[in-house]
């Protein structure tokens, strides 16, 4: 058991998560958002322990680590693989810019399409976020932008402002985050106590095993990923070449911000985080 001390005594985190899942179980069963990472493994096995009905769905993004794809196929054959209509490389050329922290079109297109009209289970946790602002109530609207009266999240966003149960009006989704208050140690203790295998990448020093080249990753993380999987860097590079070519043809070489694919890639890896005008660099006016 995962026991935590509070002002009101001890609590069993596993039982609380199981109770949450049982309390809100829909008659048609949950849609479980599965990625193969430690958090989604935890919610998958908690749902099994809770005895609730669910179907697990894995969104293949086309930039997933090969080891992760093989791990899911071998250990979770029942997970339904959702294949995208477009690859990451096609999206980059279509958007005429690589995904950035301010323009995460990749998540919305490649990872957020499923679960409409369903009650979704996610492995979102406050401990995965760098923000520490757990200030909102029990329910919220999910999505991708901020407005005057509400903040809208992507399903996969981790933030301490996330809550245990959420609702998405625009996509017809209700979302439950049963381990939102778990620490990293809780997740690992749970998996290890059940002798549940995890993806080998964690044993190789990777703390996140999501999309290769994720714009939310730090520079050090990107470099480590591209060193580990150079063919993915080459694919990003080829997409950058196509972007630069399109922009030069439309605007002329004097007006474009990036004159070569290498210039674009170097900016994307080393400078993008601190650039407040990310999207303006790709304007075509």
Order of helices and strands: EEHEHEHEHHEEEHHHH
- Biggest sheet strand order reads 5-4-3-6-8-7
Number of domains: 2
Give the class from helix and strand content and strand pairing.
alpha/beta
- Per the principal axes of the C-alpha atoms, what is the gross shape? elongated
* Poorly predicted segments: 130-141, 143-156, 158-163
Overall CATH architecture of the largest domain: 3-Layer(aba) Sandwich
User: How is the main sheet built?
Assistant: 6 strands, mixed
CATH topology of the largest domain: Rossmann fold
The number of helical segments is 9
Radius of gyration: 20 Å
CATH superfamily of the largest domain: HUPs
Number of strands: 8
pLDDT average, as an integer? 83
Distance between the termini: 59 Å
Strand content: 5-15%
How much helicity do the residues have?
25-40%
Under CATH at level 1, the class of the largest domain stands as: Alpha Beta
Give an overview of the whole structure.
- There is one protein chain.
- The chain is of the alpha/beta class.
- The protein has two domains: 3-200, Rossmann fold (3-Layer(aba) Sandwich); 206-282, no CATH class.
- The protein is 35% helix and 12% strand.
- The protein contains nine helices and eight strands.
- It has helices spanning 13-23, 38-50, 66-75, 88-95, 105-110, 184-193, 219-228, 230-251, 261-271, and strands spanning 3-6, 9-12, 30-34, 54-59, 80-82, 119-121, 165-168, 173-176.
- It has a six-stranded mixed sheet, with helices on one face. A two-stranded antiparallel sheet has the order 1-2.
- Helix 7 (219-228) crosses helix 8 (230-251).
- The chain is elongated.
- The protein starts with a strand and ends in a 14-residue tail after the last helix.
- Mean pLDDT is 83; it is low at 130-141, 143-156 and 158-163.
């Amino acid at each position: 058991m995962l026991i935590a001390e509070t002002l009101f005594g001890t609590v069993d985190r596993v039982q609380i998560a199981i109770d949450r899942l049982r309390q809100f179980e829909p008659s048609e069963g949950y849609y479980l958002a599965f990625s193969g990472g430690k958090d989604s493994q935890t919610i998958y096995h908690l749902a099994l322990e809770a005895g609730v009905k669910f179907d697990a769905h894995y969104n293949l993004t086309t930039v997933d680590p090969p080891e992760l794809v093989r791990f899911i196929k071998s250990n979770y054959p029942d997970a339904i693989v959702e294949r995208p209509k477009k690859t990451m490389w096609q999206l980059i050329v279509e958007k005429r810019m690589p995904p950035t922290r301010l323009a995460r079109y990749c998540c919305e297109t490649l990872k957020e399409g499923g679960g409409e009209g369903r009650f979704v289970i996610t492995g979102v946790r406050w401990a995965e976020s760098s923000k520490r602002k757990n200030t909102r109530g029990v329910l919220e609207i999910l999505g991708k932008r901020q407005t005057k009266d509400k903040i809208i999240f992507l399903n996969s966003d981790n933030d301490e402002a996330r809550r245990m149960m959420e609702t998405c009006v625009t996509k017809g989704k209700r979302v439950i985050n049963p381990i939102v208050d778990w620490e990293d140690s809780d997740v690992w203790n749970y998996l290890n106590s059940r002798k549940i295998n995890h993806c080998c990448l964690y044993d190789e020093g990777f703390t996140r095993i999501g999309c290769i080249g994720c714009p939310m990753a730090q520079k050090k993380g990107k470099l480590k990923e591209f060193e580990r999987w150079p063919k993915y860097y080459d694919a990003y590079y080829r997409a950058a070449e196509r972007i630069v070519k399109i922009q030069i043809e439309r605007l002329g070489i004097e007006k474009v911000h990036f004159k070569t694919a290498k210039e674009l890639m170097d900016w994307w890896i080393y400078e993008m985080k601190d650039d407040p005008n990310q999207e303006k660099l790709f304007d075509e006016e």
